[in-house]
Amino acid sequence: MTQGVGDREGSKPLAHIDRVIHEPARLMIMALLSVVESADFLFIVRQTGLTLGNLSSHLSKLEAAGYVEVEKRFKGKKPHTMLRLTEPGRAAFQAYRQNMEQVLGDRPAEETGDG
Amino acid sequence: MTEALDLKQLELRAWKSMHQDGLWELTFALFLFAWFARDVTGIPLVGIGLIFAGVLIFVLGKWFITVPRMGMVRFGPARRRKRWQLIWLLAAGILATYALLVLTVGRDTPWLRENQVGVGIGVALFLVVVFSAIAHQLDCPRFYFFGAVFAVAELASLGLDTPLVPLTGSVVLLIPGVVALVGFQRRYPPTGGKP
Questions:
Q1: Is A113 within a domain?
Q2: pLDDT tier at B146 (50, 70, 90 boundaries)?
Q3: pLDDT of residue A56
Q4: Does residue A16 belong to any structural domain of this protein?
Q5: A65 part of a folded domain
Q6: Long-range contacts formed by A93-101: CB under 8 A, 24+ apart
Q7: Is the pLDDT of residue A114 over 50?
Q8: How big is the A-B interface in CB pairs under 8 Å?
Q9: Where are the domains of chain B?
């Protein structure tokens, strides 16, 4: 868990990394929704390459966290799901980006090589 | 999902993916075919009808091919602002062209008959400017290509007085359009109504 790491001096931002967003598939969904106003389920599937089931599962977690608003409606007889980031979701994503920049941005120049 | 997460690139990629269905190419190919058909038949209504058919094919294609396979998306305010700027720009361009036509062709200006080459070059330049503006505003570099094809067709028609010129231009756009449309349909097969 990040809590222990965050307790160390100089590693405070790690403690604030949002683990709901930090998972790669959810990060991709959040990033995509952050650059558009809204998109439907299929569009997210096409852009992220996730399967329908996978996306559905990740969206449930994001929706439970209050980051994504899922609007279900019908187009004729077919169900149609529109997704958008909520304001807290946008704020959380912005905070996540800032934290990650802080965590990874201060890498010393001499550590850029693998050896 | 292994590439770096560049939000600008992500947005641009999402935007471009909605325009890689070949429908723009097919629509403009039909516009050039309308020019050819008008020249061959001598009936302006045939050309106008084909232009409307092109617009209809574009709208129906988006509705029945692109959206069911690619999904729906509403882009942010920056894209919408750019689109409105383009609409105003094109509306102003159309009005200016109409005014120019009323002031020149409508009055049977002899200058026009004597300077057909100059007028042709002017029209070609105008087409390049219009398509370049669209390419810039829509972030679609293919519109530079469309502009070049239309401008070359206009210039070529000055020297070669044959309907084969717009027909050739139409084929030049039709081929990549069909290739893009087939590729799009293969890349994004129907989802069978899910989700």
A1: no
A2: very high
A3: 92
A4: no
A5: yes
A6: A93/A21, A93/A30, A93/A31, A93/A34, A93/A67, A95/A16, A95/A18, A96/A17, A96/A18, A96/A21, A96/A22, A96/A27, A96/A30, A99/A13, A99/A14, A99/A16, A99/A17, A99/A18, A100/A17
A7: no
A8: 68
A9: 9-187
CB contact under 8 A, B14 and A41: no
Mean pLDDT in residue range B159-181: 92
B193 touches chain A (CB under 8 A): yes
In A1-115, DSSP assigns E strands to 36-40, 68-75, 78-85
Average pLDDT value over all residues in chain B: 87
Measured between beta carbons, the chain B residues lying within 8 angstroms of A74 are none
Hey, are the CB atoms on A47 and B72 less than 8 Å from each other? no
User: Which residues in chain A have their CB less than 8 angstroms from residue B19's CB?
Assistant: none
B173 near B27, Cβ under 8 Å?
A: no
Predicted local confidence at residue A6, as pLDDT = 45
In a domain, A55, yes or no: yes
pLDDT at B82 over 60: yes
Which of A25, A36, A79 lies at the smallest CB-CB distance from B195?
Answer: A79
What is the span of the domain harbouring residue A38?
A: 21-103
Q: What's the CATH code of the domain at A81?
A: 1.10.10.10
Task: Give A 48-107 residues with CB within 8 A of chain B.
Answer: 48-49, 52, 56, 78-82
Å between B27 CA and nearest CA of chain A:
24
CB contact under 8 A, B71 and A43: yes
Q: What is the pTM of this model?
A: 0.80
Q: What pLDDT is stored for residue B172 in this prediction? A: 96
B6: nearest CA partner in chain A: A31
Q: What is the amino acid identity at position B113?
A: R
- Banded pLDDT at B114 (limits 50, 70, 90): confident
